[in-house]
Amino acid sequence: MSIRVHNTMTRTKEEFVPREAGKVAMYVCGPTVYNHIHIGNARTFLTFDVIRRYFIWRGFDVTFVQNITDVDDKIIKRAAEEGIAPADVADTYTFAFRAAMESLGIERPTAQPLATQTIPQMIDMIERLIAGGHAYAVDGDVYFSVRSFPAYGKLSGRDIDDLESGARVEVDDRKQDPLDFALWKTAKPGEPHWPSPWGEGRPGWHIECSVMSEGELGLPFDIHGGASDLIFPHHENELAQSEAATGTQFVRYWLHGGLLQVNAEKMSKSLGNFMLLKDVLAVYAVPVVRLFMLQTHYRSPLEFSTDRLDEARTAFERIENLVRNLEWAKSAKAMSSGAPSASRELLASARDAAREKFVAEMDDDFNTAGALGAIFEFARAANTFLADNQSDVGVADIELLVHAKELIIELLAVLGVVVTGAVDIEFPPDVVGIANQLAGYAGTDPEEAVRALLAARAAARAERNWTAADAVRDGLAMVGLVVEDTAQGARVTYRAVN
Ligand SMILES: [Zn+2]
Questions:
Q1: Residue 104, SS3 per DSSP
Q2: How far is the CA of 235 from the centre of ligand 1 (A)?
Q3: Ligand 1 centroid to 205 CA: how many Å?
Q4: Mean pLDDT, to the nearest integer, of 455-463?
Q5: Is the pLDDT of residue 141 over 60?
Q6: When you count CB atoms within 10 A of the terminal residue's CB, does the N or C end of the chain come out lower?
């Protein structure tokens, strides 16, 4: 089975064939650090975090590069508004961005270069573009000559002549063509600047991604990702610069994520309709926010909705409860002969089907919605098993229950959804001696010892020997354990500590 990805360049799903077997080289455009990220930005980064995690789970060695744009018009504007240095704005929000990514459980990039630390390499590429007739300098600015790259528009499917007659093209007399874009800008007074062959200035935005991606990954690299609003002009321009400068293919597969919307409008800072990630995470737990986002395919638009977030919270609570119930059921019924084999076979085949469906859905252009569907379907089967066999779950079922629990935890972890209720209880070693005294247990395993104590307690209760039953309870309490009687039988937990 192979992974299929939707390639924006060909507008089709293609089999993913890495340039080097078993390895994935991917680049995802990072933030311009002038403000906290909103959850629309977070969705894009979550998408590529999950894609990266899935490749790793499927055995690939993934190199994941993401830039930080720490010099830009927006940063300079913000600094002027606040009366501080642009570098201070950039530092503050670089730190905030990294913290935000960590708060959403997004893995750190393999490399995260800063624009301001890559200036010499950018100057070098601009010089090569000028030498090759793809760029020209005017009064300290350098522009890319769009007409020098005949394939311009191939990624976004735009025609140069249509673009030219478009109303959004800015008019600048110094450009040879209105579509030409800046590679290097003369610094105005008070702006950050670096020396260059064209005078003191700073790089344009697009050039940094061309330089950093090639520098970290080499060309062509496997996957270039970003939100769909970056296709034009940013990615079109990156592609033109890189292929014009090197004569080599830039990227093998272009992946673009759909936008987060509010009332069917793109969430953006300029529209003022945004919610910051940190504000959403103050109300909803990380697994809930991830589930909410991953229940929609990454290429589709996603409408922000607190109702859908609430639904995701309920769904996640059900999963957590199920995992706890599977854990408890497994340690509770030493006396039972176990569930009927038909019931057990049903759960085992549901487990195999769930894993297969999860892989098939994720292989199909990372269909996380379908993959979650497979997990929820299996969760229903496991709940049914527990409900049907409430009093019959026995030692013979333990392996099946452990596998069921582990599968749910494993598959959700591929999506970065961590089930916190799933931590195995490690029993204190002292419980062995207590089990030896009260239940005649002769082994050395604390978990077995607890099971023996619970069995002894159940036997005592069946005989209405309350003194013996209470002795077990008190014995467990001596090592900090509490017995609870539940619908699935007795279970042992640690005493809650505040
Ligand atoms: Zn970029």
A1: coil
A2: 6
A3: 8
A4: 92
A5: yes
A6: C
